[in-house]
């Protein structure tokens, strides 16, 4: 079997176009333009790339983009004061503080300071609690993007066996809650899981979010399963260059799976599209 390639780039473009339509309609009807503030502390090159592309796509969707760049050595109190100002600013409907933050900062405290209604990352404990109890929450963008691709590929997910590899707060845990909400039977595997290949072999749905290049092998996959690869790893290409690979051995797995996301062009574009959708949602809720 050669797996169907799940085109995250095309799906994301459709979501962004729908968001742009709704932004234009909202402006006409209410005179309101959604605004997203992105805060970057330091000069991590990967974070700079993400922040730049978030800003560009925010503007392309017709929204206002506010970028705040702080020096790597800035005091935590200064970052907290900025977040408080953004909380109080009526032109800002969504706030995203790019992670990871420098070691001298307490990320949990910074996230707790964001107004939950503006927490478009869905990282604030009150959104985490709402999602975990099956209530209406701001949902983290990467797992939300994965879920939308799964629904488009499989339709009803009810009763399917899902294995999430990775237990991070950003992806693994919220992904598990979303799949439970779809009535999947969910297993969260991690670095201490015994017989990981055996666990993954049971899965109709595999979501890999571990940050280990090409860890999930083709012979771990149940024939016909759907594989979502959240990993973005830069590896040596052998010719002095580097290349991007996921957490999944794409060649090996696409020979066995029914459907699979590529890297790049799978989960990545969906994350930003979901961020824009969350910002629009936050703006609509703020304006009744
Ligand atoms: N760093 C890597 N992914 C993310 C994300 O989804 N949100 C934020 N704020 N930082 C990140």
From TrEMBL:
GO terms for molecular function: methenyltetrahydrofolate cyclohydrolase activity; methylenetetrahydrofolate dehydrogenase (NADP+) activity. GO terms for biological process: L-histidine biosynthetic process; methionine biosynthetic process; purine nucleotide biosynthetic process; tetrahydrofolate interconversion. PROSITE patterns: THF_DHG_CYH_1, THF_DHG_CYH_2. The keyword Ribosomal protein does not apply. Pfam families: THF_DHG_CYH, THF_DHG_CYH_C. Keywords: Amino-acid biosynthesis, Histidine biosynthesis, Hydrolase, Methionine biosynthesis, Multifunctional enzyme, NADP, One-carbon metabolism, Oxidoreductase, Purine biosynthesis. It catalyses: (6R)-5,10-methylene-5,6,7,8-tetrahydrofolate + NADP(+) = (6R)-5,10-methenyltetrahydrofolate + NADPH; (6R)-5,10-methenyltetrahydrofolate + H2O = (6R)-10-formyltetrahydrofolate + H(+). Its EC number is 1.5.1.5, 3.5.4.9. InterPro entries: Aminoacid_DH-like_N_sf (IPR046346), NAD(P)-bd_dom_sf (IPR036291), THF_DH/CycHdrlase (IPR000672), THF_DH/CycHdrlase_cat_dom (IPR020630), THF_DH/CycHdrlase_CS (IPR020867), THF_DH/CycHdrlase_NAD-bd_dom (IPR020631). Residues 6-121 form the Tetrahydrofolate dehydrogenase/cyclohydrolase catalytic domain. SUPFAM superfamilies: Aminoacid dehydrogenase-like, N-terminal domain (SSF53223), NAD(P)-binding Rossmann-fold domains (SSF51735). NCBIfam families: PRK10792.1 (NF008058), PRK14186.1 (NF010783), PRK14188.1 (NF010785). Homodimer. This is Bifunctional protein FolD. It comes from Citreimonas salinaria. The gene is folD.
